[in-house]
Amino acid sequence: MGFFDKLKAGLKKTSQLLRTDIRDLFKSGEILSEKHLEQFEARLIQTDMGVAATTRIVSDLRQEHLGRTMKVDELWATVRATVKSILKGTSTTTYDPEQPLSPLNFSESRPTVILVAGVNGTGKTTTIAKLARLLTSQGKTVLLAAGDTFRAAAVEQLTLWSQRLGCDIVTKPAGTDPAAVAFAGCEAAVKAGVDVLIIDTAGRLHNQQNLMQELEKIRRVIAKQIPDAPHESLLVIDATTGQNGLNQAQAFSKAVSTTGLILSKLDGTARGGVAVAIRQQMGIPVKYVGVGEAIDDLEVFDPDQFAEALFAE
Amino acid sequence: MFESITQGLQGALTGIFRSGKLTEANIREGLKQVRQALLEADVEYNVATQFIEKVTAEAVGEKVLKSLRPDEQLIGIVHQQLIALMGPTDHSLHLRRDGINKIMMCGLQGAGKTTTCGKLARKLKAEGWKPLLVAADMQRPAAIEQLKTLGQQLDVPVYAEAPGGNPVAVCKNGLAHAKTAGANVVIFDTAGRLHVDDRLMFELEQIDSRVQPDQVYLVCDAMTGQDAVRSAKAFNDALELDGVILTKLDGDTRGGAAISVKQVTGVPIKFVGMGEQLDRLEPFHPDRMAGRILGMGDIVTLFERAQEEFDAEEMERQQQRMLKGRFTLEDFRNQMKQVRRLGSLGDIMKMIPGMGGLLDQFQNIDAEKDMGRIDAIISSMTLEERQNPDRIDRSRRTRIARGSGTDPADVNRLLKDFDNMSSMMQKMSGLGVKDRFRAVQDLAKVGGMNPAAGLQAQKQRSKRGPADADLAAEKKKKARKEAKKQRKKNR
Predict the structure, then answer these.
(1) How far is CA B400 from the centre of its chain?
(2) For the segment B150-191, what is each residue's pLDDT rounded down to a tens digit?
(3) How many helices (H) and strands (E) does chain A have?
(4) Cβ–Cβ of B248/A243 closer than 8 Å?
(5) pLDDT tens, position by position, B234-256
(6) Residue B172 belongs to a domain with what CATH number?
(7) Which of A200, B48, B171, B490 is 20 to 30 Å from A313 at the Cα level?
(8) What is the mean pLDDT of residues A172-187?
(9) Distance of alpha carbon B177 from alpha carbon B171, whole angstroms
């Protein structure tokens, strides 16, 4: 199954939700009225893309089509164009589905350091395993650092993954300062000369100051060890998250200068719209999406295809 | 936790305050904003729309137009409807003293099922039950270890089999094990699953029919967006839920999911997870939650938590010392420590009625840091200095500043603040709880007008003015009444 199919399957619920109602809503030949727009707005809200993005899409529609006879295809073209332009934003991030590593920012000299953070239960550890798999399958050597020393058995979870993937891992006993793990990870990565070091962190709610400061400290420690590191600071966001995703993006961005998002758990449920809101308001691009529970189910995010899949028939 | 809705509602309703009169037009405008606030808070679209319809039906019409204070009445209606939407509550786990009680937990991945199992086991153990945890999560690597670790921390037995087994069999064996082990409550920790995964949902139904749990709880992440409704409905259809446990409410999520989930499943929200520590499981109170949404604060929870956290004897001792005017820096530091145990200062402020709005003004003041600095300064003093701050002269001050890594000016400021505070505390210690509370609120108001104002900025009564404060208040009240009468006459 290709990327597009998988993503489409993942987003099926969303597009179904949109399409079924929209077919009833927008009928060719009728005149587009405020009432139609209001109903369409409701549907957009239900994708979790938030009031601001919804308002923008609806106002684009209003500007171009209000009071005219509806042509479903043209309406869709407008909606798609708006979503795409929001998702692409102004950044220079490249998305090449043929090159799974294209969104990542690699360092000139080894190792490239990737710091992964997020709130509790978004699937950081699983995502790291998937990312490591993607990197090793592209011929890169990967070292993992098990920085989640807080949650019970988190270290074991990542260790199990490293054994399955056949890559090395740096661990410390539970309760160790995570910055110490990051330090040891950097040291080991330089010594072993690996291509990529991925550092796991414990899940933390973004409004807990001490924990966010701990994250800043991890970042400082890494930067001291390896100049310009971390080269990528990825935030894992659960695709079912609502508008709180924005707060998360803001807080993590402040602490560790987030360079990209990974939208996890996009497989089962209808959502993921919060990525649109985050892109629009924070400018942080989505880099990968988790589209299934298997180890290979991490795909490059492609704004074109995301927008297409969101509204595909 | 719901401060964002609060902001939206307050924004919407201040317009009504200003106009002073409630017309159908302005209530509609206000409620439109309430609706947007609810949507931004992740309340499901249809639920939000229905809610607004209900409030509109209640509010618009004679009842409101006749009332004297329409703004208060509107808040009252919104408040009541919110409570109605999230209630009624039922915190009981419905456990029987005879036989084995079976509790099954289910939910999406990452909702916090395993941690919540631990919290529940801790709560049951504290209530004198003999819980047994059954690790039926065969999906996630190391999920079994996580439950085992929790069991060790809590000293609660855990039944687990080698990973890769059949969860249905594990549950069955776990139940049999409970009988021999003498446990009377069994908690099944099932794997997280997506509600659209038919295979795993079928497995859950199988476990359900095999073990016949007495209670099935859905663990739901409070940060979930619009989809909360659909997943809750799917789990409810498959299993007939008995209750919901909302997790991660200690975050800054607006938590609209609480409203949606309750609405769609119809089962009560039993508990809320307020933190990662295993004792952070609190009963859900819709009235308090609704009160918070409307910026009424949540003083009840604060009192409860204070009662749990504060060392009663220590408090009593300090009160006595305060009364005698023997409040030392040492006591001050102890008290600060106790307050800090309640949570961050921001959290506490949010719970005190009328203080929530102040938070924004204080954003650039890092209270936590200040408290840390004060702690360091006091720690750098000798015991004698702590008891007799007057003895701190210039040379001592320099030494303390050096010892705590602060500026001598900081030390000075602390001593000054302390002086002010101890005199104020002496005054306050003579008041009843209510008056004391009012004094704190007055303090907040003064600070609200001028964030830079310290305690000194509180209005001092002129020396030549009436000596008796009560008398002065009485007089003011009379004057206000007179003025009101005059206004009526002139109309």
Answers:
(1) 38
(2) 999 999 999 998 887 889 999 999 999 998 988 999 999 999
(3) 12, 8
(4) no
(5) 999 998 899 999 998 877 666 77
(6) 3.40.50.300
(7) B48
(8) 91
(9) 10
> Which DSSP helix (H) or strand (E) runs through B426?
helix B408-429
**How would residue A240 be classed by pLDDT, with cut points 50, 70 and 90?**
confident
Nearest to A250 by CA among A201, A206, A303: A206
Report yes or no on B128 lying in a domain.
yes
Q: Which residues contact A48 (CB under 8 A, 6 or more apart)?
A: A241, A242, A243, A245, A271, A272, A273, A274, A277, B42, B225, B226, B227
Flag whether pLDDT at A293 surpasses 70. Answer: yes
The shortest CB-CB distance from B40 to any of A46, A51, A121 is to: A51
Residue indicated by tokens 């001598």 = B408
Q: Are B241 and B114 within one domain?
A: yes
Nearest to A186 by CA among A175, A199, A174: A199
Q: Which domain holds residue B34?
A: 4-86
Task: Name the minimum distance, in Å, from the CA of A2 to any CA of chain B.
Answer: 20
Kindly indicate the confidence band of residue A180, based on its pLDDT and cuts at 50, 70 and 90.
Answer: very high
Which of B110, B144, B227 lies nearest to residue A271, judging by beta carbons? B227
Q: Which residues contact B491 (CB under 8 A, 6 or more apart)?
A: none
Identify the structural domains of chain A with CATH numbers, from first to last. 3-88 (1.20.120.140), 112-310 (3.40.50.300)
Pick A207's closest partner by Cβ from B228, B251, B276.
Answer: B251
A242 min Cα distance to partner chain B (Å): 3
Separation of alpha carbons B188 and B207, rounded Å = 10
Q: Does residue B291 lie within any of the structural domains?
A: no
Predicted confidence at residue B173, as pLDDT, reads 92
State the ipTM, two decimals. 0.78
Query: From chain A, which residues contact B within 8 Å (Cβ)?
Result: 13, 42, 45-48, 50-51, 119-123, 126, 150-154, 156-157, 160-161, 205-209, 238, 240-245, 247, 265, 267-271, 273-274, 293
**pTM of the predicted model over 0.90:** no
Whether residues B305 and B274 share a domain: the answer is no
Low pLDDT (below 50) residues in chain B: 1-5, 62, 65, 67-68, 295, 446-463
What pLDDT does B219 receive? Answer: 94
Peptide bond into A285 cis (omega under 30): no
What's B353's DSSP letter? T
Domain with residue B365: its CATH number is 1.10.260.30
* Same-domain status, B120 and B258: yes
Q: B224 touching A, CB under 8 A? A: yes
Furthest CA-CA distance within chain A: 69
Task: Please give the pLDDT value at position B322.
Answer: 66
Question: A66-116 pLDDT, tens per residue?
Answer: 888 877 778 878 888 888 888 877 666 666 667 778 788 888 888 999 999
* pLDDT at residue B195 in the model: 80
CB B240 within 8 A of CB B205: no
Percent of chain B with pLDDT over 90: 20
Q: How far apart are CA A173 and CA B295, in angstroms?
A: 44
Instruction: Identify the three-state secondary structure at position A196.
Output: strand
Average pLDDT over residues A238-267: 88
Residue B30's contacts (CB-CB under 8 Å, 6 or more residues apart) are: B12, B13, B15, B16, B74
Using a CB-CB cut-off of 8 Å, the residues of chain A touching B144 are 153
DSSP B257-296: HHHHHHHHH-PPEEEEE-SSSTT-EEE--HHHHHHHHTT-
B409 and B280 assigned to the same domain: no
The residues with which A170 forms a beta bridge, in sequence order, are: A145
Q: Is residue B91 part of a domain?
A: no
Domains of chain B: total: 3
| Rounded alpha-carbon distances, angstroms, from residue A306 to A43, A80, A168 | 17, 10, 34
Q: Rounded to an integer, what distance in angstroms lies between the CA atom of residue B416 and that of residue B126? A: 45
